[in-house]
Write a structure and sequence with these properties.
Structural class: mainly alpha
Oligomer: single chain
Number of strands: 2
Distance between the termini: 39 Å
Shape: globular
Catalytic activity: heme b + 3 reduced [NADPH--hemoprotein reductase] + 3 O2 = biliverdin IXalpha + CO + Fe(2+) + 3 oxidized [NADPH--hemoprotein reductase] + 3 H2O + H(+)
CATH architecture: Up-down Bundle
Strand content: under 5%
Strand order of the largest sheet: 1-2
CATH topology: Heme Oxygenase, Chain A
Radius of gyration: 19 Å
Bound molecules: protoporphyrin IX containing FE
GO molecular function: heme binding; heme oxygenase (decyclizing) activity; metal ion binding
CATH class: Mainly Alpha
InterPro entries: Haem_Oase, Haem_Oase-like, Haem_Oase-like_multi-hlx, Haem_oxygenase_CS
CATH superfamily: Heme oxygenase-like
Pfam family, one: Heme_oxygenase
Number of helices: 14
Helix content: 55-70%
EC number: 1.14.14.18
Length: 265
Amino acid sequence: MESMKSTAAGSDLSEQIKAATKDSHVRAENTQLMLNYQKGQITQTQYKLLLCSLYEIYRALEEELDRNASHPAVQPIYFPQELARLESLERDLEHFFGPHWRTRVTVPAATHRYTQRLREIGNNSPGLLVAHAYTRYLGDLSGGQVLGKITQKSLGLSGNKGAQFFWFPGVTSPNRFKQMYRSRMNSIELTEQQRQDLLDEATTAFELNIEVFDDLQKMLSITGEASSDKGNEAKSKRFSSSPVLQFALGVGLTLATVGMGVYAF
Ligand code: HEM
């Protein structure tokens, strides 16, 4: 089934990976969190919670990419100057949580599973990091650019303050960069088995993202922060009068009620 997909998509890895993850992309776009986001229904609490998870995900991804930078599969797609997100996420977290933001990072179990997978492949099969770098960075340079504008507008942020994550100062043209990135992916030498493993890992990467969004949505729905209908807009406004309290309350309630495991790293 997968190999038929690959043949239909041509022999370039970039085409094959896009084809292999097409359905997963549709599912990721249609998670409740992403649907709300696209409608501009994002509150500061939601965004802060998302930033915490992104921080842990990029910390694992970028540490593993750095450590494996000279691996023959990683080296062609290793662009820390242009792509690295960790520092921008740290600045965004500091913007919202203040200087002691590190003590405030809280993530659900799905985020923990995602980072564990990144550590595992970083240690045992670094070539598969290509699938994770593709899923996150090309996503950030695609739909992510729209989400960045929505974030600024919805939260009334001035300039990039608090939303540096979406901003790639080292990338002048996202489209041209993506073209170049795809051709670098296509230059990686792979056996058929390695190619198939990489395509499977890309589907896993999307799945891990979907699970993070679903867990975040669960946490938010308990706090009354999940705005899936108009009525919630009023609720969100009411809560947002004290974002710090609201966040602490939300996480506490989630811990108590869902019992799904919340991790402070
Ligand atoms: C609101 C949700 C989303 C929207 C509106 C969206 C939109 C888009 C669009 C329009 C493209 C095509 C850009 C182009 O062809 O140049 C794209 C590509 C992509 N997106 Fe998304 N996306 C969303 C969520 C996600 C998520 C959650 C992920 C993964 C975690 C993701 C990963 C990707 C990847 C890897 C590509 C590159 C595909 C390729 O050219 O090979 N997207 N997205």
